[in-house]
Amino acid sequence: MEFFFLMEFFKTYRLIKIGFLLLAVILISCETPVDIDIPEQDPQIVIEGRIETGMPPVVIVSKTRGFFEPTSAEDIANSYVDNAEVFVNGAQLTRVCTDEIPPDLEDVVSELIGILPEDLDDVRICTYIGIEEALLGQENTTYNLSVIVDETELTATTHIPRIHPPDSVWFRLWANSPQYGYIFANVTDPDTLNNAYRVFTKRIGPNNNDNPVDELYYPPFQSAFLDEFFNGETVEVGFVRGMPPNSNRPVDLGEETGFFEIGDRIVLKFTNITEPTYDFFLTFEAQQGTNGSPFASPSNVISNINGGLGIWAGYAVSYDTVYAEP
Q: Closest by alpha carbon to 127, among 111, 144, 141?
């Protein structure tokens, strides 16, 4: 099922390019200027928060920006909010800014907030982290979030489900390829409706090839899925390789895009999530896939933040290490 949607995505992408060429011809032939008045919108608060089993809650607060506003590093940095008050289950989180992190904690904070260690100094971003041991994520636990910005309170609730790891995980060559393939897993779904999942991948070293390792876990295309069609059953699910956003690494371009290669060592981060978290990432990735195309069906990202936008997500996490061999 994952691969069917992946192939459909690339076919749609080719149709979009053809559509843009036709649109360009039409626009070139038009000589009457058209003025479009785009109304201004008040900025909204955006929350990016998560809590995983065994890990502290992490919340990033920012404000939306206008489409035509400047996009320099300084302008982007100014969109992040550094004066919020953030609470999880009544306990206040600690503000940690990228320009104040001690060197011995850079790797830890980098993994928590999803920014490479070498990029932490480029843009000042303040993150809110629960440093108390009592706030470490636990399975089958509910977490209430409260964020106060300029006397406005935003709230959200998430739940870390019970951990249901895959029964088995392995690498398989794709079609007739002698060296490229994907990760597969057997997943036994609990006999209850609306169990949801999200996956991440990470190439680690040493590899028996020249492929670079990943410093962070990256979600692949269509990273979230729901048990709508396999409730209570055991199914085989395939996953493409997650890649850094806007990557220009040779292994993330051309024929290698989305593939693992023989000789890779990979960690599959498999998570159990709630249905609202699934809804967010399903619609978020669908919007990313359209890439702003005027020919795509409009879709809104489904948020679980009351009073704002974004996501407060809970993850029950398991890990499997796979060696890619034929």
A: 111
Q: How far apart are CA 111 and CA 145, in angstroms?
A: 21
- Alpha helices of the chain — where are they, by DSSP H? 2-29, 73-78, 106-113, 275-290
The vertex-112 CA angle with 109 and 114, nearest 5°, equals: 100
pLDDT digits (tens, 9 = 90+) for 59-95: 999 998 765 566 666 666 778 899 999 999 999 999 9
Q: Which residue has the tokens 């292994």?
A: 251
Backbone region of residue 101 per phi and psi (left: phi > 0; alpha: psi in -120 to 50; beta: other values): beta
The 8-class DSSP code of residue 168 comes to E
Sequential DSSP letters for 227-282: GGGTTTSEEEEEE-----TT---GGGSGGGTT-EETT-EEEEEEEEE-HHHHHHHH
pLDDT of residue 74: 67
Please provide the DSSP assignment of 144-158 as one string. EEEEEETTEEEEEEE
Question: What is the DSSP secondary structure assignment for residue 81, as one 8-state letter?
Answer: -
Measured CA to CA in angstroms, residue 128 lies from 10, 82, 180 at distances of: 38, 9, 40
